[in-house]
Predict the 3D structure of the following.
Amino acid sequence: MKKVLVTGGAGFIGANFVHYLLNNHPDDYQVSVIDKLTYAGNAASLESVLDKIEFVTGDICNEQLVNELVAKNDIVVHFAAESHNDNSLRDPGPFVQTNIVGTYVILEAIRNHKKRLHHISTDEVFGDLELDDPNRFTENTPYNPSSPYSASKAGSDHLVRAWVRSFGIEATISNCANNYGPYQHVEKFIPRQITEILEDRKPKLYGKGDNVRDWIHVDDHNAAVVKILESGVSGETYIIGADNDHTNNRMVIEMILELMDKPADWYEHVTDRPGHDMRYAMDSAKIRRELGWMPHYTDTNGMKDGLKQTIDWYKAHEDWWKPQKQTTEEKYKAQGQ
């Protein structure tokens, strides 16, 4: 049984990763979590499994704490990050601190204790593509970040690669498409629209809603991460995508409205985000070919299945998201969004 430290394990993807390991690999991994429990980290996301994991409230920038935890584990899966683009436009400082300095602290601990790292990154480090561009992002696409958030993640990726080359640490990187699923903060696009409808308000669409994203269900993402832990090659980067890039933000809202028995045009247009990337598209041929991973929630039907599961989760867990909702909507209202 390998000991795994999950950074940001009370956040959206990290919490789902913890549940995924415990549900699908209970005899393979012993799980520890470190999370700062900022507004985006929620201990309630792990409440049902606290008796099966070690949970530490702490900051990944705390060198002493990180060294103590890394020393006790075999692998670090590094999810911890400030991740909301709109917040990075209002205040970039926390993004630089957590995403760059925090990653540096983890890398030094990995180097000192000769452990293994898997670093979770994003498609946003590549910038965006034009709507009519047939190309997709690959592991060799040059970085061209558009926001403080994506720039800070690009910086953390470069640090990981530098520590592999300069110090010979064992590390892998994955760049994933936009995730959706349970336990996602209501500031994010899909849960915001679902919870608006649940509170009988029209969902909100940035600008014209033509922006294209390769949406991936969080369980598919985490299945890919496990494949990388099991078979990934140190120093390699793996793109993770679900082939849902044909679905733009307007179509996602219309799918949600259909699944929640609302008219297809029952939404409002709001002010677009400054510098809003137009299109992301991921070429995940490498991880499919080399590691045998395949997404479950793929193409339009798979996306609908994933959205239905997500909608059902938010319907059943109002006690989880209600405390976040009012503050989140007040922030959006102040921005005209």
